[in-house]
Amino acid sequence: MRDFVVPKTDTKIIGDVRLEYAFQLTAHYDPPSVSQTPKGSFRYQDIVSGEIRGEHLNATVYPDSGGQYDTVRADKVRDVDAHFMLKAENGEWIYMEHVGYRRADGYYRAIAYVEAETKGAYDWLNNTTFVVTAQESADQREVVFHYYIAN
Amino acid sequence: MSGAFTDVAEATPISRRSFLGAAATAGAGAALASVASPMSHAAGTGDTASGAAARHDTQATYYGGPDSKSPKVGLRWAFSATVFFADRVMINSITSPTGRGYTSVGGGEIWGPRLQGRVLPHSGADYYKTTFSTYYMFEASDGALIFIHNRGTMRRFQSRPEPGQPLLPPADPQSAGWTRFRATPVFTAPAGPHDWMNRTVFVADAQRQSNPDHTVFTYYEVL
Fold first, then answer.
1. CA–CA distance, B93 with A80 (Å, rounded to integer)
2. Could you read off the pLDDT of B108-162 as tens digits, one per residue?
3. Does A148 touch chain B (CB under 8 A)?
4. Do B118 and A131 touch (CB under 8 A)?
5. Average pLDDT over residues A65-75
6. So what's the ipTM on this one?
7. Which residues, in sequence order, are CB contacts of B161 under 8 Å at separation 6+?
8. What are the Cα distances from residue A140, in Å, to A35, A134, A144, B122?
9. What angle do CA A22, B170, A91 make, to 5 degrees?
10. Which terminus of chain B has a smaller tally of CB atoms within 10 A, N or C?
């Protein structure tokens, strides 16, 4: 291994991040299925449908285009891993991925990675980082996700 | 921003100013005030320097939605990482279907209110395609090894992103604004004092610096 010395620098930068509300997704799920695996509890929930409403994006979740594939950890935190497709109101396809945590104390936050047609109307979604907060119904069949642009 | 307010009840006893003051005393952070909000993309919104500093404090800033029923989501500076890079290699080119970049992590330091330590030297790299995906290790000051998988885009902040508008190429790729981007890490920390990192979503500001080649990441807890 090569020696490495951290150079003395004056780059103690404190960078700024601010959030700007973008849109919300109301997602409808089938009941979850939980199975025990060597990697912990695996919780699958099909995303059946959904609607996105916002100033700059209106879309529907393409039916049965994906789901949520979470790991329920020993500390009861769920590692959220969701993938699904959207169809925008003009017909263009959009891919969406959620990575985050859902805790027993009500904290349900994620990062959304979104990809759209670079030559389409939703190119602004590409390379935009979204912070997401979620509100669940009591039966966890309906979840409202609120998306914020990390400016 | 009208949707933001500061949650005083969430404030921690460590203020950014006292932390940075201590750092400056130690000879590590001279001229911090002048770089606290460099090349701010909000420079045109009338923010004052003092306002920018307040947002960087370890108090949480919460953001709301279009109506009062929307849930609030907050950000709070947790720590920063200054990461120095060693090798930069491309397999094919970034525009090739098999283009893959390799940028190795040489080392670095971790500093801030909730985590201190160093980047474990030569512990990993960024293996990027069109988006980056970096794997390496932190070594906290108590010796704990913390795995970071950092993902993100390299969208720059030459200009403020406009929802609904196409991305525009930078007017000047060498300009300072072109060096800023966002990063979203997932940490795996051992049980113990760093366990909170296993159940917290983070978002970071990242600013590339040259000579030497390094990036300064400012990590915010998503509250």
1. 33
2. 999 999 999 999 999 999 999 888 999 999 999 999 999 999 999 876 665 555 6
3. yes
4. no
5. 97
6. 0.93
7. A124, A128, A149, A151, B155, B167
8. 17, 11, 10, 44
9. 40
10. N
